[in-house]
Automatic annotation (TrEMBL):
Keywords: Heme, Iron, Membrane, Metal-binding, Monooxygenase, Oxidoreductase, Transmembrane, Transmembrane helix
Enzyme Commission no: 1.14.14.137
Cofactor(s) demanded: heme
A GO CC term assigned to this protein in UniProt: membrane
Name of a matching Pfam family: p450
Protein name in the entry: (+)-abscisic acid 8'-hydroxylase
Residues annotated to bind heme: 411
Catalyzed reactions per annotation: 2-cis-(+)-abscisate + reduced [NADPH--hemoprotein reductase] + O2 = (+)-8'-hydroxyabscisate + oxidized [NADPH--hemoprotein reductase] + H2O + H(+)
Length: 463
């Protein structure tokens, strides 16, 4: 056979081969994006998200596109995920490919060195310090203090018409300060509360830093908070006393955290601890009010604990062991966390192009695990809208129930949150009754879902 005949054939084969290789490679790199619509540029679908119950928005998208879909919110392209497998992928197994992310104004308000925004070694260090202060061994020692905060708070509320959420915020703020500053808390409560309440008005305001704006006032309050904390830190350094509260943990000699880093994280913990726990308490009070048989079961369980202590001649304070004898009350907390799903989702950002189930999640896109959709999936929780604590008699499967998240950024305060809720409910159900005032079927949004108007109730001491 003549060579001049073979050469073109060979050349064209080579060409086809190179072309195919290129095609296969680029095809690999150009995986399809997840299904979904992107809305108008910039405004994106934010308007839809905020103009209705956000859960309706998420649920209708999921119905249309499945458990992984793309959209556009707050000016950012993003992928929303709503299956246990995808949540595990983003939060646990491939957590290193997804960094936490918040709007820049929030970062400035909370302090950019706070635990939420941090990664790598610094995050590991902060987490160790926070977990040390909030693990069961440490919070056991403040049970009686939490109890007296709960009793004082209930005592001051009886006989009045109150806004449940407002009052629960005061309770959870005081408990948060106790866990941060120990018993010294009382000395600084007034000043810290005043500054924090100004600071929080800036959380959801426009980040315009000129005199007179909420944002400017709130940045000022933030500086004052840092000053007060610096004063507490320097007093503690002079006294050279050991403290096993959160501030003591942050101030450890070997940790070398700056005052600014400590301030950012103290403010961050108050932010993470107060409104979350207060809105869960508000929802529990609503669900107990709506479900008399559940309220009776909880009250019976709590009264049994008092009776048992009387029989043994023990003192009347609750102990850690007592809080472990509250299975019915604990299931009410779990079911409330599921139905209300107050943190309906969290934010991450892909640090590189990531492939998931044949789809491309491009570098820089936001990724939102939708906890609420998972918690309201009828395949996982039959009749999901129904409040039924008994469903938690069976332990939920991994990554189907994540009110405290999962993985490296999951909530380090979850034991404290459950403890302070149990203690409050113990005193509430055994000593008080309450009635809800006005229409109470509505829900308000922003940023958390809450019963309408913060749930006005009237609280009366049982005779
Ligand atoms: C019932 C009340 C609470 C709920 C539902 C809740 C929920 C959560 C969730 C879902 C996360 C993870 C967010 C993510 O992965 O992006 C988180 C993080 C966090 N929570 Fe909680 N939380 C509660 C109470 C508390 C309390 C009482 C404290 C402190 C005393 C606290 C401190 C924190 C901190 C510091 C983080 C950040 C952890 C990190 O980035 O490594 N939380 N919380
Ligand atoms: C408030 O705004 C003024 C003017 O922009 C600025 O100089 C000042 O630093 C702001 N205050 C704070 C605490 O950021
Ligand atoms: C978190 O993820 C791990 C690994 O998948 C799993 O074993 C665990 O049960 C999950 N936690 C929750 C609260 O679902």
């Amino acid at each position: 056979m003549e060579l001049h005949f073979l050469l073109p054939l060979f050349a064209s084969l080579l060409f086809v081969f190179v072309f195919l290789k290129k095609f296969i490679q680029s095809n690999n790199r150009r995986l399809p994006l997840p299904p979904g619509t992107m809305g108008w540029p910039y405004v994106g679908e934010t308007f839809h998200l905020y103009s209705q119950n956000p859960n309706v928005f998420f649920a209708s998208k999921q119905k249309r596109y499945g458990s992984v879909f793309k959209t556009h919110i707050l000016g950012c392209p993003c992928v929303m995920i709503s299956s246990p497998e995808a949540a595990k992928f983003v939060l646990v197994t491939k957590a290193h490919l997804f960094k936490p992310t918040f709007p820049a104004s929030k970062e400035r308000m909370l302090g950019k060195q706070a635990i939420f925004f941090s990664q790598g070694q610094y995050h590991t260090q902060l987490r160790r310090l926070v977990l040390r202060a909030f693990m069961p061994e440490s919070i056991k020692s403040i049970i009686s203090n939490i109890e007296s905060i709960a009793q004082h708070s209930l005592h001051s509320l009886q006989g009045r018409l109150i806004t449940t959420f407002q009052e629960m915020k005061t309770y959870t703020f005081n408990v948060a300060l106790l866990s941060i500053l120990g018993e010294e808390e009382v000395l600084y409560r007034g000043d810290l509360k005043r500054c924090y309440y100004i600071l929080e008005q800036g959380y959801n305001s426009m980040p315009i830093n000129v005199p007179g704006t909420f944002f400017n006032k709130s940045m000022k309050a933030r500086k004052e908070l840092a000053r007060i904390l610096a004063k507490i830190i320097s007093t503690r350094r002079q006294m050279k006393m050991e403290h096993n509260d959160l501030l003591g943990s942050f101030m450890g000699d070997k940790e070398c955290l700056s005052d600014q880093q400590i301030a950012d994280n103290v403010i961050g913990v108050i932010f993470a601890a107060r409104d979350t726990t207060a809105s869960v308490l508000t929802w529990i009070i609503k669900y107990l009010g709506d479900n008399p048989s559940v309220l009776k079961a909880v009250t019976d369980e709590q009264e049994a604990i008092i009776r048992e202590k009387e029989k043994c001649g023990e003192e009347q304070c609750l102990s850690w062991a007592d809080t472990k004898k509250m299975p019915i009350t604990s299931r009410v907390i779990q079911e409330t966390l599921r139905v209300a799903s107050i943190l309906s989702f969290t934010f991450r950002e892909a640090v590189e192009d990531v492939e998931y189930e044949g789809y491309l999640i491009p570098k820089g896109w936001k990724v939102l695990p939708l906890f609420r959709n998972i918690h309201h999936s009828p395949e996982i929780f039959p009749d999901p809208e129904k409040f039924d604590p008994s469903r938690f008699e069976v332990v939920p499967k991994p990554n189907t129930f994540m009110p405290f998240g999962n993985g490296t950024h999951s909530c380090p305060g979850n034991e404290l949150a459950k403890l302070e809720i149990l203690i409050f409910l113990h005193h509430l159900t055994t000593k008080y009754r309450w009635s809800m005032v006005g229409s109470n079927s509505g829900i308000q949004y922003g940023p958390f879902a809450l019963p309408q108007n913060g749930l006005p109730i009237r609280l009366i001491r049982k005779s």
